[in-house]
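User: My collaborator sent over this chain with a note saying "see what the structure looks like." That's all I know about it. Can you take a look?
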Amino acid sequence: MSYANPSRPTGGVKNANSYLRTRVMSASPEELRLMLLEGAARFARQGHDGLVVRDYEQSYEGFTQARNIIIELITTMNEDAAPELCQRVRSLYTFIYSELVSASFEKDASRAASAIKLIDYEIETWKLLMNDLAENESQDRAAQAPASTPEDPDGSQRPRLSITG
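Assistant: Without extra context I'll predict from the sequence alone. Here is the result:
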């Protein structure tokens, strides 16, 4: 009889890790930030749920991961474009971090819930920003596109087909 080695990932975990690695490697900086925010929310919920059922190991793991992600978000901001905005966002993330620390140490599910609410709000805000950026980018591309006839792969002009004559 053979036993599975718990230190080696199973096929499902390996495939999930491979998918995540590919997703991270091909993501834009905006998408990476969104993924981090979603991860922070997921781990903060894990911490909250651990408090509710008094599973303090689950709570500790969740809050620790969430705090690590929030620290990563704070320390990787690029202030070159908008220093004042970065400072405001950094202040928000610092508050979220302190709420997660307090929730963990005081075993206070309501503080965890308030941190989760703020992270969820930040996720929605970030999604709206990403949508606006994508919309502006597509409008810019449409405005810059030349009004010419389609080209064949060899570079020659193809005649336009019309059903109106």
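A starting point for your reply to your collaborator: Residues 1-8, 160-165 have pLDDT under 50 and may be disordered.
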